[in-house]
Every structure is written in structure tokens, then in C-alpha cells.
Amino acid sequence: MVTIKDIARESGYSVSTVSRVLNHRNDVSPDAKKRIEEVVAEYHFVPNNNAKHLKQSNSKSIGVLVKGISNMLFASIVEEIQRMIEKTDYTVVVSYLDEDDDEVEQALLLCRERKPLGLLFLGGNPEYFKKGFAMVDLPCVLVTNLADKMDFSNLSSVATDDVAAAKCAVDALFEAGHQKIGILGGDIEKSYTSHLRFEGCLESFREHGRPFFPELCYEKARFSYGSAYRGMERLIRKYPDLTAVFAMSDVMAIGAIRALRDMDYRIPEDISVIGFDGTDLAEYYNPKLATIKQQYQTLATRSVEILFGQIELKKDRVHEIVPFEFVSGESIQKI
Amino acid sequence: MVTIKDIARESGYSVSTVSRVLNHRNDVSPDAKKRIEEVVAEYHFVPNNNAKHLKQSNSKSIGVLVKGISNMLFASIVEEIQRMIEKTDYTVVVSYLDEDDDEVEQALLLCRERKPLGLLFLGGNPEYFKKGFAMVDLPCVLVTNLADKMDFSNLSSVATDDVAAAKCAVDALFEAGHQKIGILGGDIEKSYTSHLRFEGCLESFREHGRPFFPELCYEKARFSYGSAYRGMERLIRKYPDLTAVFAMSDVMAIGAIRALRDMDYRIPEDISVIGFDGTDLAEYYNPKLATIKQQYQTLATRSVEILFGQIELKKDRVHEIVPFEFVSGESIQKI
DNA sequence: TCCATTTTTGTGAACTTTTACAAAAAAACC
DNA sequence: GGTTTTTTTGTAAAAGTTCACAAAAATGGA
Fold first, then answer.
1. Inter-axis angle of helices B4-11 and B30-43, to 10 degrees?
2. Are A113 and B69 a contacting pair at CB < 8 A?
3. What is the pLDDT of residues B72-123, one digit of tens each?
4. Is B96 in CB contact (< 8 Å) with chain A?
5. CA-CA distance, B145 to B324, in Å (whole number)?
6. How far apart are CA A320 and CA A299, in angstroms?
7. What is the CA radius of gyration of chain B?
């Protein structure tokens, strides 16, 4: 392997001068710079990252923990994050975990093994962080969940206002004249997102003067097609005179619609459905799905910007809300 | 930071004995092993990867290049690959590139910067490899494209037989009685996958005694909803008496269906559609999409296994075909 | 007990880079 | 020209591991 020593020998300068050129220092003569750059190009030399980071005791990597592996929105956000970080000299280490894995434990593991300079957390429950997060004293951004109640000085967050957004979804159903509305979401004990959206639902029910019986019209399922399918079956069985359903993700909405159709309900004539996330899928689905659009690009870019702000510029923590948007579709019918 | 020296001092043994325990060597006494493991646990010590890899001049990382960023099948495969590699002591570096980026250049860049021990290539065109791949003399597996014609000794591949699978899709349309069949795929000049599937289409047309006019019934688009939507519009305009369409991905099929519906065609009554990939989406779409199911899990696991075989066991290159499956749906009507 | 083996442990060099510090060279001043 | 200042360069230590080799300890046989 060609090392900095080879470049030094070949260019006639010392190792440290080569290092200076490599790191774009300005305390080196134009002559030396030119000659060394020639040799570097000739030998296709690229410095060894391990040696570099060993000396600087700096991994230049950032960890991404994704909780909820089949979440399409997360997939889009992760992709965007990767694209952004790729442009810098950082590496990204992505770790996927199941909806019910212990995120804090995984985070600690990741930190011990890879020693990242910062952490990006998709879908984690801020409440859990109390448990053991103080241990990993790293800049960290919680993406898609607001952590403004947490008092870790290095924990930022970027998220959609889930309460308001879910309320907006259910409001839309009430405004279309629906009275018997079912909710299909995650486990509010485990998923903080589900918990918040549930709160939003409650608010809407309250505001519309409707009592809400969670045990009756809240059905929990995982955020996947199949699980939503089965959840919808249970929900409609318990509550057969439903005229509308709010599903807490587009994927769930689609699973629910398939279940309803298989039971010969027509969408939206018999039952209206609204989803959440606003992925491409919602727009192309049949019927075009009414949904709440989250700005996944903004979520991704802001979280990376904030994290780098904390790591490199020692900026303060930030809690940022990214606006959402109601997207009308063909899956809601006025009654 | 706690280092191996601290553990050595604290346990009363030397650095090298600690190192031996850490690497599960068996030339160390049970006493020492026990004592050292205690101290390691107490201090939550994890060896510094940079130092380790520097000494071993071994990055223990594998690079994944993904060409075609919005390909849902690739997303699933990558996820699966990440999950597999996560269990080993390797790191994975994923690099996404656009459908029309230059993959070889990107591969070389990745190799120079990260020095991975092997490469996994999703959606690359084997033809391009001639250009500059010999330079990066690394074990490499082309996933979803067969490279049995390439004679690089360290280039393996795992793929679905695209020719046969596409033929199977078009056969299904012919067998349902269709005569005027349109094809919606990628650019056969640039996308090798599209090229192969196009060949499969040709074979089917030939076998059914039908002439095939690519300029008439082959419409090229990118593998995304929106692009397929516009492609379908053009296709139906050029060829208005179409009764069936084969779209080269499920996403494209769905984009096409939306375009057709917007022009008041009914699916499948007026036009039958068959997709490709067999993602969950196809099963839950409305109408349930007929498609060709690729075994994405097998593709992922086999490619990782083969790559590790080449890296660690110095095994020979392998070209492996993973079987596909025809999945019937509601989007095809017999006539 | 002594010697030959085997098992266990320690020493110190090596991996490649960065960087503090020192030294040399060049420039600027009188 | 001599002195000071600035610019440019080199030397050598350091980062945290692994590993070849040597040394020490334990074991076995006689």
C-alpha cells in the first residue's frame, strides 16, 4: 500500500510537509504544494483513515438508529440523510431495530463499538431516554419526535407536530360529516408517536363534542400492511357501524382498505379512510388516499444540519417543528 | 478514553495478554481470562477500531453501491444486507447513486476513500465494468444482475433471470388472450436490467408469432411513479388500441394504472396490467397487482454469503440465479 | 532433582498519520 | 552586514492496537 512516506520520499519533502499539503494548511510554500500534489495524483494516494482517526481520536462518523424497519417515511428520510452526509467527510453507520427492540440499549452498543461523534434517532421514544441516555454524552437529534420536555443538554429534535397533525386528520373526517370514527394506530404504550397522535384524536373528539371510547374504537397494530389488515378486521368487528377510519400511516391505511374491501365495504362510499405521512404511495393509490403530508426532506436536512451544528460549531440544542399539510384524496366521502 | 493499557494495569496482566483475551485466543490461562473479562466489563471497555484496523491494515468494511435510488426492491435488499452485516464485525458503507450516474467512477471513489474489503453492487450494468473495474481488485458481487459473461476473477453475481421472468410476464398476458401489448420499462441503452427484460418480451412476442415494434409499444421511463405516469400517457397516445401493459416494476405499474384511470380506462376491464418485483405493495394495491415476484431476501442473503465466502474463505466467484414466481392478481382480465 | 516439553505471559516493534516543537531558510529591518 | 521577524521545513513522539518473539512458569518424566 502506498503511504505518506512514499509520497515524502518521492517528492523529496518530509512526511510532515506532505501531511500539511494533504490537510490544506497554508504554512507551506507554493513550490512544495505543487510538487507534492503532483506526486499524490500520480500515485493515487489517499490517506489511511484509520491512522488519521487514531491520531485525532476522532471517528468522523455519525450513527443513525432507525426504529421501525418497515416505515416507508423513515426509509425516505434515511436515504436523504445518507445523501447529505456522503457529501461531507463523515461516515454514517445505520442500525435498524425492530419496533419493540430496546433503543437505548442499542444506542449504547452502537456508541461503544463505533464511537460516533453524533447520533440521529428515527422513531425513538423520548421518554425512554431518561433511562440511560445520560451515559452516552453525545450530540444527538431525535427525528420525527419532539424532545422539548427532555432536559439533556445535547439532545435536539426535529419533528412534525403529531398532536396537531392527527387532530387535523380526524377533524377532516368530522367535517365531512362522520360521527362514528375508528382509529388504527400503534401501541400507545410503546410508540410515543402513536401516543401523540392518539392525543390529537382525543382533542378532535372533544372539540366536536363526541365521547371517545378507546377500548372500542382504537385498535392497535404495527405499522405494516399485514398488521393493519388484521387490526382493521378486529376493529370493524367490534364496531360495525363505523363510517370512517383514521390510520396512523399510509401503509396502515392501505392495509386497512384492503381488509375492508375483502369484507365487501366500498371505499369511500361505505367507509372513508385517511392516512398519515403523505408518501408518494398515497398519491398513486387507488383511491387516491387522503393523508397528512410530513415534509420528510425538511426533516432529514434539518436534523443533519442541527447535528453538525452541535458537533462542529458547538451550537446549542434546538427543538424544531416542521409544518405538515393536509392532502385531500378520494378516500373520504362527505355524508 | 479507557484503553487496553488501563485494562492491563487494572487487571495486573500485560497488554498482550489482554489483547489475547479480547480476541478469544486460547493460549491464555482460565484465571487470566476470568480476571481480565471482569475488568473489561467493569470499565465497559471496547477496543478502538481505528487502532485495530490500522495494525491489521484491514478496514473490515464492505461497500454497497445502490444505483436507482427510488427502487423499492433495492431498499428492501439493502435493509436486509445491513441487517446481516450488522451481526458480523464488519461495517457497511452505503452509497446511493442516481440511475444515470457513473457507477464505476463512484465505485473507485468509494474504494479509495474507505478501502472496503468487498463491494456489493445493486443495479449496476455489467458491461460498464470492463471500463475500469479491473483497477479495483476487490471481491465484488453484482446483485440483481448476472455477470456470467464478465471475466473478472473476483466478480460474482446473484440475480433473477430477467429474460425468463419478463417473458413469463408477457406470456401471461398472451395467455389471457391479449394481442396488443404495450411495454413500459427503463432505457435499454443505460439499464442492463431493462435490456434483459426487453429481450424476454421479444422472446415472448416471437414465440406467440407476433411482430414487435419497439418504437411503437416500448415506452421508456425511469423506475418511479411519476415517470411511469408520463410514460403511460405517451404510450397510450401512440398506441390507443392497447389491451394490456407490462410494466417493468410494481411502482411503474402503479404509476401507469393511475395514468390510465385518469384517462378513464378501467383496470382490468379495459386494459390489463402486470408489474414486476412482487413487493408488498403489489399485494395490497387496488386492484391487486399481477406481478413477477423476485425473492429479495434470498438475493440479499446469498449475495452477502458469497461476498464473505470470497473475502474470508478465498472462495471462487459464483454466478447464481435465484428463482422467481408469477403472482396472479386482479389487474389482468382474460379476453 | 534435573531436563525437556508445554503452557502462559511479557517485551517491544509495527501499522500510518498528525502535530508540537525545533531548526533552517528567507525576508525585512536598521 | 548583522539582527530580528516571518515563513517554511524537518524531527520525533504519540495515538491504541496486534503480533512475532522471547522469557518465564508450570508440567511431566526419568
1. 120
2. no
3. 888 889 888 988 988 887 888 888 777 667 767 777 777 777 778 888 989 8
4. yes
5. 14
6. 9
7. 25
